[in-house]
Amino acid sequence: MSNILVAYWTATGNTQAMAVKVAEGANADLKEISEISPEDALQYEKIAFGCPAMGDTFEEAEEFLEWYEQLEAGLEGKKIAIFGSFGWGSGEWMEDWTDRIGQTTAVLFEEPLMANEAPSSDDEDACVSFGQRFSQF
């Protein structure tokens, strides 16, 4: 088992494509949230969470939010990263998610990584680089 987890939820496959590349760069275990319990996710030292925007907020991604809320209190002191795709707006949900994390003692890595719609080859390269940097964080 790696000490890094990339856990994601996807609606259209765009965030999954990002997650694959982030995990590749970080040499991390990759799990869709249906494949790992919140308790098992918390066994990792570092977790990169991927969730797309559904409108202006990730909270409309109800399945992810329910899973995330089960482990949120256990993130205290953990190193985490967040990323995801969006189809409209400008990624306001990442600002809300960043603020939410700021209310805990979790340590947020860099600015959130976002891709508009399906990740381009440049976006995929950015995901690999993001993962590499996160593994060194």
Automatic annotation (TrEMBL):
Residue span, Flavodoxin-like domain: 4-135
GO MF annotation list: FMN binding
InterPro entries: Flavodoxin/NO_synth (IPR008254), Flavoprotein-like_sf (IPR029039)
Signal peptide: none
Gene3D superfamilies: 3.40.50.360
Protein's name according to its UniProt entry: Predicted flavodoxin
Ranges in a coiled coil: none
